[in-house]
Specification:
The complex is a heterodimer of chains A (271) and B (330). With 271 residues, chain A is mainly α. Chain A has ten helices and no strands. By secondary structure, chain B is an alpha/beta fold. Classes of the chains: A mainly alpha (271), B alpha/beta (330).
Chain lengths: 271, 330
């Protein structure tokens, strides 16, 4: 009587249906989406690699021998990835969980509830990857000394990008499911700003050796591994954390955040 | 006696006449205050009927529906939809049910058309099938002109119609409506009733919760009266009225309550009066009919400072009063 088997074909169709819904919504918001992902790296590159070098003694990293642009490129890609993950998952989720309970219809789709959450992560990871790739041409055109990414290790770039983007989506899911809609605005100042500034985005991790305690403390920040992973992929001339540390760390954080985010999501929709 | 249509269970091949089967269902919310929201409900809904769960706010209706629609996990007991256990196979059960929740949960980022279209896609419809089904429903629910509107631009009644259209878009076996007329103006409420009756003609079984006795009375084939998480009575509205409440309830509000017991005792013996209860602000008289009795009641109650009389003709309301000693709004 209870001999029911899940229909894998239907599961796939449901998943694609959810993706198409998100794509439709994103297509309407394409302008705001581009501004959201483009504005920060654009201004950062403009101010720190174009404006500052034109001022006497301007570049803050001028003495390091490596152009600040080279340090900034992977860092800005990391910020773009993380920022997209949070704004593509955490912000919509907080409204959908809020008074409108808009998520209900998707939760009631004929698939395990976790599929709805996983779709959110996957869809946001696509946005994260686009956002990160968009930083590359900006780095080639904006700085006074153009920065060209080294794409010889494209496979490493691909792996780091995929893991990082999924990680960012999972972080968005965890934040969106845990933080109440009322406090979602605070997320940016309490979570996003600190993990970015302390995420080895604007400086390589190796340079932190002068401040040992900070160098150890930031190891708990997943953004560090995103920045360092991208650094070893696109700017190998800058000293970065070894890949054999970065990749397992990304996988570990991804696993933890997916578990944590899914649990929060399920708790939010099933009582 | 009406014969119920049979229904074939999805992927089980078994034919069902009972669509919703609830057995010994309980739900306890642990916390500072332990709340027993559902306290042992058993009921079965037949294919093709409109079934009403009637009770005051907090009776456990919404919790029961939430469990049946896989949104809440029961503490104990089972719910099966066409033979599919909702706890063990929630994803399968969701294919069989449509849900119209108490609140407007339309996707605010999508148009009315897209709300239905993507709902169909979630249920595995192809692009063509989803488009066709959405157009069909928009026409059926007289929403075709508003297809490009966003949910925030709709009135409560229209939004409710879209929610019903969306809930049945994947052709569920049973539709659950939770307080469908809450927050609707009288005109929209009537339109909603018509829509629900239309669904029955399409063979969709409907389970609705309500605390409006008129709604339960005029819509439902059978009604379960629930209070404090328990089911008190079950039957067609007609049968419930015959069994429990074929009585007119006359409420006499008094200014002086000191001699009220004597008044009640005096009234109890009179012809045409079946029972008299003392309530906080006066007495409640149960009688077969109010005719000829009013004058006597006024006369008897006048010395006690009679200040108001309310007469409730036999209805599900009087059934509820008979069963619980309270009225639905209390």
């Amino acid at each position: 009587m209870n001999n029911v088997t899940p229909d894998r074909m239907l599961l796939l169709k449901t998943f694609l249906g959810l993706m198409q819904r998100d794509l439709r919504v994103l297509s309407r918001e394409i302008g705001p989406f581009l501004l959201r992902v483009g504005m920060q790296p654009l201004l950062f590159l403009f101010v720190f690699t174009f404006v500052m070098p034109h001022m006497a003694g301007g570049s803050p990293m001028a003495t390091t021998g490596v152009g600040f642009g080279s340090i900034l490129l992977p860092g800005l890609m990391a910020v773009a990835i993380m920022f997209s993950g949070i704004s593509a998952v955490a912000l919509p989720l907080s409204t959908e969980f809020g008074i409108t309970r808009e998520i209900d219809d998707r939760v009631m789709c004929p698939a395990p509830v976790a599929v709805v959450a996983i779709e959110k992560i996957v869809f946001s990871s696509l946005q994260s990857m686009l956002a990160a790739l968009a930083v590359i041409p900006m780095a080639m055109f904006i700085p006074a000394t153009p920065v060209y990414p080294d794409l010889h290790r494209w496979w490493l770039l691909a792996i780091v990008m995929i893991l990082s983007s999924l990680l960012a989506g999972a972080m968005g899911l965890a934040i969106g499911s845990i933080v109440s809609p009322k406090h979602i605005g605070l997320v940016f100042s309490i979570i996003v700003v600190p993990i970015t500034f302390l995420g080895c985005v604007y400086y390589p991790w190796a340079y932190l050796d002068k401040i040992r305690w900070l160098q150890v403390a930031v190891l708990f920040n997943p953004i560090v591994y995103i920045s360092e992973g991208l650094r070893s992929a696109v700017t190998p001339q800058v000293h970065s954390m070894p890949v054999w540390i970065v990749l397992p760390a990304l996988v570990g954080f991804l696993y933890f955040l997916v578990r944590f985010g899914l649990r929060g999501f399920l708790r939010r929709v099933i009582s | 006696m009406r014969t119920w249509p049979h229904f074939q269970g999805v992927r089980t091949g078994v034919w069902y006449t009972v669509i919703v089967e609830i057995e010994a269902l309980t739900k306890v919310y642990e916390g500072k205050q332990r709340v027993k929201a559902v306290d042992g409900i058993d009921l079965s809904v037949q294919a093709g009927e409109i079934f009403g769960l009637l009770g005051p706010n907090g009776a456990g209706k919404t919790t029961t529906i939430s469990i049946a629609t896989t949104r809440t996990l029961p503490t104990s007991g089972t719910v099966r939809i066409a033979g599919v256990d909702v706890v063990r196979h929630p994803a399968e059960a969701r294919r069989l049910i449509g849900v119209v929740p108490q609140y407007n949960t339309l996707d605010r980022s999508l148009t009315i058309y897209e709300n239905i279209y993507y709902h169909c896609r979630y249920f595995g419809f192809s692009h063509g099938q989803a488009r066709e089904r959405s157009d069909e429903l928009l026409t059926q629910f007289l929403l075709a002109e508003r297809r490009k509107a966003y949910p925030s631009q709709l009135s409560g009644g229209l939004a409710q119609r879209v929610q019903i259209a969306r809930a049945i878009a994947h052709r569920p076996t049973v539709l659950f409506l939770d307080e469908p007329s809450a927050g609707l103006d009288p005109q929209s409420r009537l339109a909603m009733w018509t829509a629900v009756q239309q669904l029955r003609k399409e063979g969709i079984t409907v389970v609705l919760t309500t605390h409006y006795m008129e709604e339960a009375d005029s819509l439902s084939d059978r009604v379960a009266i629930v209070d404090h998480g328990r089911m008190l009575a079950l039957g067609s509205p007609q049968k419930l009225k015959e069994t429990f409440g074929a009585q007119t309830v006359i409420h006499l509000a008094l200014r002086q309550m000191d001699q009220v017991e004597a008044l009640a005792a005096g009234l109890r013996g009179q012809a045409g009066i079946q029972n008299v209860e003392v309530v906080s602000d006066g007495v409640r008289v149960f009688s077969t009919s109010s005719e000829g009795l009013l004058q006597e009641l006024v006369h008897a109650a006048a010395p006690h400072g009679l200040r108001d009389i309310a007469i409730a003709e036999p209805s599900l309301e009087t059934v509820f009063i008979q069963l619980t000693g309270r009225d639905l709004r209390e």
